[in-house]
Amino acid sequence: MKLFYLLSLIFGSSVFGQTITFNGCHNLFDNQNFIFNKTGVDANNKNIYITTPIDGQPCGGLGTCEFKIQWNNTLTRWEFLADEGNGTFTSPYLMYYNSTGTNTLSIPPGNNVGLWVENTSITTGQCGGNLSIGNSTMTGDVQSPSLGVSEISKSKIQIFPNPVSEIIRISGIENGQTVQIFDANGRLILSEAFDSKINVSQLTSGMYVMKVTTKDLQHHEFKFIKK
């Protein structure tokens, strides 16, 4: 019964994915990962994420950077904000915004869902344009194209068994190109050519995301538990 409850929480995104890993806008932020931690939920049941450490990490010519991702209910969009410099986010700078993702979910869109628009009035165009899989990575607790309107939507594409001890199987994908596995912190753990059978026996126990990319560059993401 406890296992069923745990799985229900995970696939409802209540427990899994408390972090988002972002890498992008190298001209301003340097080529480095920023880890966002979920810090709470707003009045609209949207998650709030802030980078750690809160006093910032070295960030190119900007000195140190603190970032926040949150929902703007007035403008009905997700926003990627940069702190003005003291970690309070009282007058943050809007770096990107996305109003075309699946706004019914409590988590923000990934960099290949909807459109994260660069706010060039702040960046002066130094971020290289809107976020895409070509100029950035955004993994962890984010929406992906495979999620549709709900994270628990079912499709003919499945992975099983879940939880898994050794071999996890992928069904419903005929033109797979690559398989990637990320841990709960968004770190890439495994990357290899697509196969319908993936050996995960070397992974430590915990929660992971499997990302399958097809030859026509579609992306499918699945959460699973390694026993």
UniProtKB/TrEMBL annotation:
Key words of the record: Signal
Membrane-crossing residue ranges in chain numbering: none
Signal sequence extent: 1-17
NCBIfam families: Por_Secre_tail
Protein name: T9SS C-terminal target domain-containing protein
InterPro entries: Secre_tail
Residues of the Secretion system C-terminal sorting domain: 159-219
Source superkingdom: Bacteria
